[in-house]
Amino acid sequence: MYSLEKTSLKIYDDIGVAIPEILLPAPGIDLTKWAVIACDQFTSQPEYWREASEIVGDAPSTLNLIFPEVLLDAAGREERIRNIHAAMGTYLRRGLLEPREGMILVERRVAGRIRRGLMLCLDLERYDYNKGSTSLIRATEGTILERLPPRMSIREGAALELPHILVLIDDAEGSVIEPLTVDLAARAPLYDFDLMRDSGHLAGYGVDQASQDQALMALRRLASPNIFGQKYGVALDTPALLFAMGDGNHSLATAKAVWEKLKPRLGMNHPARYALVEIENIHDGGLDFEPIHRLLFGVKRDLLAALAAYFSPHFTYSAFDDPETMARRVDSASDAVQMIGLVQGGTLEKFTVLEIARPSSNLAVGTLQPFLDDLMDRSDAEKIDYVHGKDVVIQLAAQPGNAGFYLPKMGKSSLFKTVILDGALPRKTFSMGQAREKRFYMESRRIAQDSRGSGRGSAT
Known about the structure:
This protein is an alpha+beta fold. The chain is 28% helix and 24% strand. It is built from twelve helices and 22 strands. The protein has helices at 31-34, 46-56, 77-93, 148-155, 209-223, 225-232, 249-266, 303-311, 323-331, 364-377, 390-397, 415-422, and strands at 10-12, 17-19, 21-25, 97-101, 104-110, 113-123, 127-128, 137-138, 160-161, 166-169, 191-194, 201-206, 243-247, 274-281, 289-297, 315-320, 337-344, 351-357, 383-388, 403-406, 430-432, 445-446. Helix 4 (148-155) packs across helix 7.
């Protein structure tokens, strides 16, 4: 019944890269309404998504092509997935998406900073999200396998993929992306517009063949055994880590899981083998790592007592009158003792700094997460969420029955070496910027099609 496309991508097997045909909104579409933020943001703030829906109205928008995770547990999930798939077919039939072959240089201006990235495809055959992976494309944080099935049900049967995936390269010399930015102000952009909800500005620029070749050559150099071994102080036969997950870990893992299901039936030459992503240089001055804080709902236990019992005898705590003092204390912690802020709704000691000596992990989040996992296993809280920003965790945690853990920032310079030597970090360790700085859906890519424009195969 369905005729699946064979891939016409330009493939570079040695570095796991393919040059895609990218679909962009047709002229005349209101791009501010078209582009919406990554589906895994504002998961405890449904009002954000209500306001986004009000802004979009009946206009063509990626809001109709993605599934905000805040709604995953709401009624009508299967109907929404069917509507997403139908909207993809409608947009294709109406000509709302126009193809353009080649990489796209992306420029995002937000929070007074500029960061740049490059749109291309990665080969899912070169990616392994499992613990202990030594693949060319690698997860930087633990993958929660239970989170994949609902995402897989969205991607399966979709005609399009829309990425919010940001993948990092470790390019201290600025040899891959930075040369593409020369004389950028003099070039005509493919798109150039303000994003909704005070999320900054987005622009995209075409990349010519010569510049693409230069970028590919630079990526090959980063992956070469001599350069890789010298940079990280490892043996020349150590498998190279060229692409490390930044944001969208579970989205790329979903694409991989769906591909593993499809390939026995469809063969290796299929567009679903590849995933459209944006790569960014970890050394980009506009890229900042932010902590991902933990939020508990429906807490049923005395958390300070539980923490003392779990971390004894290396646990102490101090109470403070305001969240700013608590946050400053946590942010100024030395390596000797790990510090974590605790905000509890409806308690006398609302703002507390936890101090843990002889921690089990090099990172505070790695020390805390096993405690939270144990707490949830014992049903001592109804729900856990992962949120961005000090103000958000304080506001939501201060409500009765809730609690929040404020975590310190992680430095970005050691990420690649840590993953190479020690493996993936604890899940939800870091975030590339605050919530409003996250990637917005703009570009898409066709991964399956039938004659009517609706998809069956392997998006969002």
